[in-house]
Specification:
The structure is a homodimer of 304-residue chains. The first copy, chain A, is of the alpha/beta class and 304 residues long. The first copy, chain A, has 2 domains: 255 residues, Metallo-beta-lactamase, Chain A (4-Layer Sandwich), CATH 3.60.15; 36 residues, no CATH class. Chain A contains 10 helices and 16 strands. In chain A, a hairpin with a 2-residue loop joins strand 2 and strand 3. In chain A, helix 9 runs parallel beside helix 10. The model of chain A has no long low-confidence stretch (mean pLDDT 95). At the A-B interface, helix 1, helix 2 and helix 3 of A face helix 1, helix 2 and helix 3 of B.
Chain lengths: 304, 304
């Protein structure tokens, strides 16, 4: 019953040896979502033993190279692996033109279908619903059009009360239905209410991704109360002017968003390459919002 | 007096943990040429302590992603480093359109000029002459238009005979001229011929890069007698059919080209990801052409 985020890259525009540009994989139950796809993402997926063929949905926040330059290589590799199921890409409109031009230049007819869904809305917008989750986009405030994404787990299956299986002689084939909320009818026609058979469902889990953006409190309602918030923290607050000029956020500002949005946990990333040791950024964020962790490449965070 | 090749990536279309896609840096004296620029090249340059700002010329063989997908990231980083000198890119025509579309999508006005030189010729063609080297392109035979590159060092400065400096009281400021071939006129007007003052010039060095191509003997005259030949060897010869179908070369075929072209040394690379251990490919090549080495990422080969 995983709800697990893997940081594939936590660097910013200029990559460093230790930090790939932005990419993350979110696993919700058996489904993997790829969020941004900076250069090197293919290799990072491989290092983290996440098979690209398990992914059907990719979300690209904006068209600065450090957020999408790994995509065409990934698309090409899936072609070479003879993928046959469609791949769905949620992205700013111009990405489709770039990818199609690259396909044309390499004279490639993909073995699978590629679907593009343009991000255009300037408010929260449900862009995808799968069996496992709903995905929303919402606007960020960056130098070019940019979107954040929120992943909301759908109702989680309940856990069965083991003794009830024996008591009512419940066949194995009925367990999934009951875990999803059905009542059970015994052999002699008696209805056993679901509440008697199961423990209460755990709360559904939520993750919000915010990169890249200037400090903007308009984001708060979109990420209100999520279990885990990723917010960029490119600079320490002593470089506030630089952050503001470049439409980026400081660690202190990221923590302020987390605090005001009353999220459970904050994870910061997208560090400027000037920071070798990022503990000053982490400490700064924790001074405002205690439950903060710092992303590093290959970090895995599981929400229980 | 370096003439030094650094392998930045020796993999083929699907990258592996140990092998980045194709990229090489050739140092001729103080100048660095970048040959192909697969995904991850920026980081590979960093790992090899080669500063991108020292490069003015990039050569892209063809528009399969594993040979150019690192270019836009490199261009972007040079912009972020506030590069101000021009960058010259020798490439198939369509690359300019791809890069310009990506610049537009990211709303970037580069801090430096970018010049594109389209590869179009179907024979050997001098495409660049610097103080250090002449660079030629020549056609390969691949699924899409593809070019090889030959780098020919220009005349190397001679070494001075130390005792002649003392004998004729040659000032330090004259040494470079003499090493480049000038005679010397003494204080009392006597001309001393260059041959008396210097050791004979060493032979100039040559490197040819051939990736990707089907086995094609038409390439031989273009690489005839070079000191070092890089030739792709994607498959072992037992997979000749696969190699031929995909317009690639086997290790045995690469060695045959080296033998027939009478080169001094062969380096093979562009290995299919199916090969973990590439010694079968190396052994196969050596059975035909003894002086073969196998590329691996971060290998440095110096031609003396």
């Amino acid at each position: 019953m995983s709800f697990k985020l893997t940081i594939l890259g936590c660097g910013s525009a200029t990559p460093t040896i230790d930090r790939n540009p932005t990419a993350q994989a979110l696993q919700v139950l058996e489904r993997f979502f790829l969020i941004d796809c900076g250069e090197g993402t293919q290799l990072q997926l491989r290092r983290n033993k996440i098979r690209p063929r398990m992914m059907d949905h990719i979300f690209i926040s904006h068209l600065h190279g450090d957020h999408y330059l790994g995509l065409f290589g990934l698309i090409s590799s899936l072609h070479l692996y003879s993928r046959n199921k469609p791949l769905h890409i949620f992205c700013p409109p111009k990405l489709q033109e770039i990818i199609e031009l690259q396909l044309k230049a390499s004279d490639t007819r993909l073995t699978y279908e590629l679907f593009f869904y343009s991000l255009r809305e300037n408010n929260e917008n449900l862009i995808l619903e799968t069996n496992e989750a709903k995905v929303y986009s919402f606007p960020m405030n960056h130098r070019i059009p940019c979107w954040g994404f929120k992943f909301v787990e759908k109702l989680r299956p309940k856990s069965m009360r083991g003794e009830k299986i024996r008591e009512y002689n419940i066949p194995f084939t009925k367990v999934d239905e009951i875990r999803n909320g059905s009542d059970f009818i015994t052999e002699d026609g008696k209805t056993i209410l679901n509440n008697e058979l199961t423990f209460p469902a755990k709360e559904t889990r939520t993750y919000a991704f915010c990169s890249d953006t200037i400090y903007d409190e308009k984001i708060i309602p979109y990420v209100k109360g999520v279990d885990l918030l990723y917010h960029e923290a490119t600079f320490a607050h002593e470089l506030l002017d630089k952050a503001t000029n470049r439409y980026h956020t400081t660690a202190l500002q990221a923590a302020t968003i987390a605090l005001k949005a009353e999220v459970n946990k904050l994870i910061i990333g997208h560090y400027s390459s000037r920071y070798g040791d990022i503990s000053p950024l982490l400490n700064e964020a924790r001074s405002i919002f205690e439950n903060t962790i710092a992303a590093n490449d290959n970090l895995v965070i599981e929400i229980i």
